[in-house]
């Protein structure tokens, strides 16, 4: 009887596991079908209502540096449209202005003539309350600038100390018409990205417009940049290393290794210090350098004076505006 009972339990466990796998596969399949059917690519724009379109456009343009683009209206709204969209029957025509807000979604600004809707902003915890967050490279500089324009800052910038958003700084501010918006910055990435290097989170900082100058196509200058890159990785003096880091790398440089992604100069500097601490007698030496436009390949070896090639590999650089913007590291596998 005991043997039969054990076999029965084993069958039940196997059946349960099989059913769970089926459910997981079915859920994944449904999600894939939904994404494919909807055909959604991403967020195109965010719509907000304002009491005065001209003042709102002036704020977005003059203070935040955004570009007003398309405009529609004033468009009279019929009774049926107002009913379907929960608009007061006495409210007048709508005028719509699209604001190009840099990298990412645009902002669609609505002004209703003779507006009979609520004039009170929703509280933060009200259903329907929302805000727009703008990425900045230096949040403290951005706050200082907004204050100089008499923009109300709500509190002080706060940096998340741990968890998925570790390394992210944020602060809220108010527009002249009372809407709450946000500044956010994470120049060295977030905790989630470091814990899940294969997962790439979209960020406007990663799509910031880059300009390749004529100097970026100069093979001699790019070779010099790569030589200075090697000096950084061999430099033990912290002050000299930091000076070279700022000279050679862009502030939001990204280094992609097979095991992790380092974002920003600080991340890379920490990794260099750890590498030097673990291998105090090792140094990098170049084997060859190849350039093509603003792309450079450096073949290197790493080891001691007696054994200079304990590790070898290749670094691929993307150079923009005279600095390394992307660095891809390939380490040769030992047979």
UniProtKB/TrEMBL annotation:
Q: Which residue positions does the secretion signal occupy?
A: none
Q: Where is the VOC domain?
A: 42-186
Q: Which Pfam families match?
A: Glyoxalase
The record's keywords, sorted A to Z, are: Metal-binding
Name by which UniProt lists this protein: VOC family protein
């Amino acid at each position: 009887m005991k043997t039969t009972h054990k076999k029965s339990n084993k069958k039940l466990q196997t059946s349960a596991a099989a059913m769970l796998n089926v459910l997981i596969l079915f859920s994944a399949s449904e999600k894939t079908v939904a994404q494919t059917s909807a055909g959604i690519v991403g967020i195109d724009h965010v719509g907000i209502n304002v009491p005065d379109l001209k003042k709102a456009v002036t704020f977005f343009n003059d203070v935040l540096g955004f570009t007003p683009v398309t405009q529609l209206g004033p468009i009279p709204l019929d009774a049926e449209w107002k009913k379907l969209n929960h608009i007061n029957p006495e409210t007048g025509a709508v005028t719509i202005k699209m604001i190009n807000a840099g990298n990412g979604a645009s902002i669609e600004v609505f002004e209703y003539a003779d507006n009979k809707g609520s004039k009170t902003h929703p509280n933060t915890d009200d259903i329907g309350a929302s805000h727009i967050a703008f990425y900045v490279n230096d949040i403290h500089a951005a706050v200082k600038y907004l204050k100089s324009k008499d923009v109300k800052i709500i509190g002080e910038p706060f940096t998340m100390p741990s968890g998925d958003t570790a390394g992210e700084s944020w602060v809220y501010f108010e527009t002249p018409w009372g809407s709450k918006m946000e500044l956010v910055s994470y120049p060295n990435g977030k905790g989630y990205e470091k814990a899940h290097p294969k997962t790439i989170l979209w960020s406007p900082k990663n799509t910031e417009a880059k300009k390749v100058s004529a100097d970026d196509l100069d093979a001699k200058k790019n070779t010099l940049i790569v030589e200075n890159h090697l000096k950084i990785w061999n430099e033990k003096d912290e002050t000299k290393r930091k000076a070279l880091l700022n000279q050679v790398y862009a502030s939001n440089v990204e280094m992609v290794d097979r095991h992790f992604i380092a974002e920003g100069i600080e991340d890379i500097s920490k990794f260099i210090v750890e590498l030097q601490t673990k291998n105090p007698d090792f140094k990098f030496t170049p084997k060859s350098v190849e350039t093509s436009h603003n792309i450079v390949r450096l073949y290197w070896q790493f080891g001691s004076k007696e054994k200079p090639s304990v590790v070898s590999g290749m670094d691929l650089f993307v150079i923009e505006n005279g600095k390394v913007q992307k660095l891809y590291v390939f380490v040769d596998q030992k047979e």
